[in-house]
Amino acid sequence: METEIATTDNEVNTNEAVRSAVGLLQSGDVVALPTETVYGLAADALDPDAVEKVFAAKGRPHFDPLIVHLPHKDNVYEVAEVPKEIHKTVVQLIETFWPGPLTLVLPRKPVIPDIVTGGLATVAVRQSHHPVFHRILRNFGGPVAAPSANLFGQLSPTSAQAVMDQMEGRIPLIVDGGACARGLESTIVRVLPGEKKPVIEVLRPGPITEIELKKFGKVVFAERNEDVENSVPEAPGMLANHYAPQKPLRLLECPEDFVPEDGKTYALLSYRGQPKDGFIDLHDWAEVVVLSPGSGRVAEAGIRLFHMIRQLDQLDVDEIISEPFPDRGVGKAILDKLRKASVK
Ligand code: AMP
Ligand code: MG
């Protein structure tokens, strides 16, 4: 199969890209689309055969459920139950964060096929903020299932070229909507009734942070990260890492943990490029990539994370060393990805 890239750099091209993408969705095919988080691999969420093609293209195991993206906020009631006890909070979250990078896990309605949820009684739903994605969904007129457009276990793509590198020959079309504005997968939460106030349980940290969520309830972080894609024990030697580059990547807690081996070359992934953090002058790095130069902003570091790891991965070095990141705000999501990408 030949994989085409459709550009959206002007109105004429965008119209054409939207038409092609909608046509593919309507004929039960998959198409890679830009969202504000990472690129997604989309298929008609109500058509099990179409969704099967998403699993096949990604090489994703079937127990790992997909996120369902909605054309309109109100569509949530068509695909999910919103239980009375949490209705008010769910509506507040939707009104505040949709369209945007917040995914809600809710009891599912029978219209959602088993293959989408891995047989779970719940479905994960969100509405994307990306203008091209939004237009394609509105024209298509129904929900699409769209996980990240990477091969299972590998780096999430934040550009059309990054999708092409992994998906060439596996899907018919990639709609190029530019670099992803948030650059990290959506925050996934579920709402539980609490004693004094509702509980918002974060199942996967992402661009929407604790500070933003805590206006609506008590925020807790799931003890066992429920990101199934990344918690499943793998057969030895297979997919030992997730969100992983091809080169070994090691997240360090402090500069003292770095002991270079003779003859090996290293690249540094730095948070803010500050000598006072102890890493920059530690070694004669083959390359240094700084995610948020200056005083450091974790949200900015998050936006550039996958893109920069991808660049480091293309260098001729033996290992990528990552500085630690602050365990707050978007930093939580960055640490989550780096821990999973890190060699064990
Ligand atoms: P992505 O690859 O970004 O589409 O994310 C899919 C992830 O969403 C899965 O790996 C799960 O972690 C999460 N997810 C999807 N559906 C559910 C669900 N019903 N319950 C809990 N987590 C879910
Ligand atoms: Mg993914």
Describe the structure.
With 344 residues, the chain is an alpha/beta fold. It has 2 domains: 4-83 and 108-176, Alpha-Beta Complex (DHBP synthase); 249-341, Rossmann fold (3-Layer(aba) Sandwich). Helix content is 28%, strand content 19%. The protein has 10 helices and 15 strands. The chain has helices at residues 11-26, 48-58, 76-79, 84-97, 114-117, 131-140, 160-167, 210-213, 298-313, 331-341; strands at 4-7, 31-33, 40-44, 67-69, 102-107, 122-126, 144-145, 173-176, 187-192, 199-204, 218-221, 249-251, 266-270, 287-290, 319-322. The strands form 3 sheets. The chain has a 9-stranded mixed β-sheet, with helices on both faces. Strands 12-15-13-14 form a 4-stranded parallel β-sheet. The relative contact order is 0.15. Residues 147-148, 156, 229 line the site of magnesium ion.
**Count of separate structural domains:** 2
Measured as a percent range, the helix fraction is 25-40%
Low-confidence stretches: 225-240
CATH superfamily of the largest domain: DHBP synthase
